[in-house]
Amino acid sequence: MLIKDSINKIMAVLEENYSLRVFEGRDPYRVLIRTILSQRTRDENTDQASKRLFSKYKNVKEVASADVVDLEELVRPAGFYHVKARRIKEVSQIILDEYQGIVPHTVEELLTLPGVGRKTANCLLVYGFGKPAICVDVHVHRISNRMGLVVTKNPDQTEVELMKIVPRKYWLEINDLLVQFGQTICKPISPLHEICPVSEFCKFYHDHSSF
Description:
elongated, 2 domains, 211 residues, Endonuclease Iii, domain 2, Endonuclease III, domain 1, mainly alpha, 0% strand
């Protein structure tokens, strides 16, 4: 079966099994800061740090003018809080000074911000602006390689290869669906093959068919 045919069928099955999160109405600035906080930590830690931060500081102007020690304490649950607090303060100041307080919405502009790589930029395009992009986090990178859709060594390579084979109509939703799939079934250790709805398309499953 051709890779593109497999992707169409995989996405159709995942759409049936998972509910897409709503993209409309999200504040791009909060999505950006949350994505920065999510680096090298778990989702629950990111949720807690983001909630603590925005319960006190409501917008880019307030975060930019906040005391960095206070920011560190608020984002502590996300880990690496010294670095992350300074980074979100610096990014916030740049957005105020260079973009009139409005988060830029192109990959090229976003990549000029401190601590913003391709994953963060693409996630912001998808979840902050509702613009088609392929956001490759650890789940998307792992699952794409495990299933045999790509053979890559890092998320940036995975993004490039997925852009070649994933129909554009799925770009907005592929991260959301694969993250949910990776959290519930296609886990890093001991994936749940016995209940996997897309095992027939999975190279890893067929290579270990003794399960």
